[in-house]
């Protein structure tokens, strides 16, 4: 899991313990099973595979229905101000060598060209690794290493790799589409967002130091999330899109150049 992705969908109703088992294709959050009711996959507890039937491409994004989006827009939008959560495409980067890779990935590169030598006609070419900046983890980004499978028990060997030509959008090989992140893009990710500021919660608004290192692996418990929500006056609703502020970017912005370079030698962590 890459450090540059603090944003994750976490269904608040899965924090509850009194929900009933759901039908396989249900988009009704109230019918979902609790975490404890979910079956195990080998040694891993709480496997939600199969809740939305065979060949599902969306996972919990299935719950972001038109009705839910409409209700969220009516109740939550008060002033209409938008806030970008995107990090620059070149972050995080090594300060001493801007073209050096971070976490084993290639750094982004931008080529700005003048068409036919005319300074008034410009084209930009941007080459990036999809781990650059801020991004979502798709269902086939990081699988279960011990068993060689991705979401819904999809075998890793069945998914494409290497250089893949851009297909005709009207005639795409199904293997290229299977559990790809474009399915989320086609559906859209829109709903009621909840931001839990764990940094403010743990530091008492800056009165005490942060108890954990945002650049090291650390667990975030349900108990912490619930306590932070209570302190902020947040009341969870089914299908909330949960945003966590954990302090990684704050530490990066405050770090000295040599500290940023040291980050490049760390294992990926959240």
UniProtKB/TrEMBL annotation:
Source lineage: Eukaryota, Fungi, Dikarya, Basidiomycota, Agaricomycotina
Cross-referenced InterPro entries: KFase/CYL (IPR007325), KFase_sf (IPR037175)
GO molecular function, one term: arylformamidase activity
Name this polypeptide is given: Cyclase
Biological processes annotated in GO: L-tryptophan catabolic process to kynurenine
Family: Belongs to the Cyclase 1 superfamily.
């Amino acid at each position: 899991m890459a450090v540059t992705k603090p944003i994750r969908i976490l269904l608040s109703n899965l924090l509850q313990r009194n929900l009933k088992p759901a039908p396989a294709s249900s988009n009704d959050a109230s019918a979902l099973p609790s975490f404890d009711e979910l079956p195990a996959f080998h040694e891993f507890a709480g496997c939600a595979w199969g809740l939305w039937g065979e060949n599902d491409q969306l996972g919990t994004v299935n719950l972001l229905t038109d009705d839910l989006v409409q209700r969220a827009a009516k109740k939550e939008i008060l002033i209409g101000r938008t806030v970008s959560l995107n990090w620059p495409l070149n972050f995080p980067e090594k300060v001493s060598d801007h073209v050096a890779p971070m976490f084993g990935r290639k750094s982004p590169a931008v080529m700005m060209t003048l068409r036919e030598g005319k300074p008034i006609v410009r084209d930009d070419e941007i080459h990036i690794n999809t781990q650059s900046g801020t991004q979502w983890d798709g269902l086939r980004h990081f699988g279960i290493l011990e068993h060689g499978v991705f979401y819904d028990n999809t075998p890793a060997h069945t998914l494409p790799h290497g250089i893949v030509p851009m297909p005709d959008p009207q005639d795409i090989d199904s293997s290229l589409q299977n559990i790809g992140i474009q399915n989320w893009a086609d559906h859209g990710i829109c709903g009621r967002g909840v931001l839990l500021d764990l940094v403010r919660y743990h530091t008492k608004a800056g009165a005490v130091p942060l108890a954990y290192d945002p650049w090291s692996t650390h667990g975030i418990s349900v108990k912490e999330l619930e306590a932070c929500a209570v302190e902020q006056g947040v009341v969870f609703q089914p299908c909330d899109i949960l945003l966590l502020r954990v302090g990684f970017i704050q530490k990066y912005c405050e770090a000295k150049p040599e500290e940023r370079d040291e980050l490049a030698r760390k294992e990926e962590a959240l």
